Amino acid sequence: MSKKHSEKFIALVNDALTRIPEISTGEVFQKIQNNEDFLLVDTREEHEFNAGHLPNAIHLSKGVIERDIEKNISDTEKEIVLYCGGGYRSALAADNLKKMGYSNLSSMAGGWREWNEKKFETEN
What we know:
The chain is of the alpha/beta class. The protein has one domain: Rhodanese-like domain (Oxidized Rhodanese, domain 1, 3-Layer(aba) Sandwich), CATH 3.40.250.10. It has helices at residues 7-16, 25-33, 46-51, 65-72, 88-99, 111-117; strands at residues 22-23, 39-42, 58-59, 80-83, 105-108. It has a 5-stranded parallel beta sheet with strand order 1-5-4-2-3. Strand 4, helix 5 and strand 5 form a beta-alpha-beta unit.
């Protein structure tokens, strides 16, 4: 990871990950290839999303996802994979969505950076 995060932030993320499963970039790639029925939610900032994102992802940044999730995804049982730059923001967002009643959530470990390192397909 190129960024150095504080110990308290890492502790917060690790706590969220006790409640939220992670899914690998390879598993997400396979789900896309197999045309599985799930939603990809990019929790990065708008400028990050606009620069490139996973295929068919929708954008709900970490700053507004709790406010806007219900008008964008009303089905609380729908499978949702959240991702961000490295897997931290998405874990925190997924944890909050779980508290709001969404039950089929995961956070993509490694995030956008690992997705690109593996040279998986992206869109702009």
